[in-house]
Hints:
Keywords: Hydrolase
Order of helices and strands: HEHEEEEHEEEH
Pfam family, one: NUDIX
Number of helices: 4
InterPro entries: NUDIX_hydrolase-like_dom_sf, NUDIX_hydrolase_dom
Radius of gyration: 16 Å
Shape: globular
Protein name: Nudix hydrolase domain-containing protein
Distance between the termini: 33 Å
CATH architecture: Alpha-Beta Complex
Largest sheet: 5 strands, mixed
GO molecular function, one term: hydrolase activity
Strand order of the largest sheet: 1-6-7-2-5
Helix content: 25-40%
Strand content: 35-45%
Number of domains: 1
CATH class: Alpha Beta
Mean pLDDT: 87
CATH topology: Nucleoside Triphosphate Pyrophosphohydrolase
Amino acid sequence: MDVSDRSRARVEERLSRLDAEFGSPAVTQTTFEVDEESYERAVERSRDGQLDVHAIVRDEDGAVMLREGDGEWMLPRGQTRPDEDLETAAKRIVRDAAGVDCTVTDAVRATISGVRNGDDESAETVYRLSVVFTAELTEGEGQRGDEAVRWDANPDAVGELV
């Protein structure tokens, strides 16, 4: 089985698990080209079974938690670890981003990405899965004073970030 078939099978298996745990989120698919180094990273992450996880965390007032990264404000995001279930990964990523705990409430979207090597047209497409979860803050105010975390009450902020 080649890298394309293996990665596609892993994505399908993870989607089945996601469906069993959270129901069927909306699923979209996209394809894009990356440079050789990014392609090799995608192949390696696929081999390890890693998924990309994003978390939309709301506080008791409905504001969305954003963290600073690479000079911009973004939702907490990261990759699963080997043998880590999706809910545990989402909670860990939020804790790492802001030092707060959350309760995962739903999986709202999954994106299957076909990653192509823009430097080598003969390289097979590798497939990756990214899942967006919603969550609620479970511990008080969190790090509202931390400069690396902010809470945005603008409901349009989420649409722009995922």
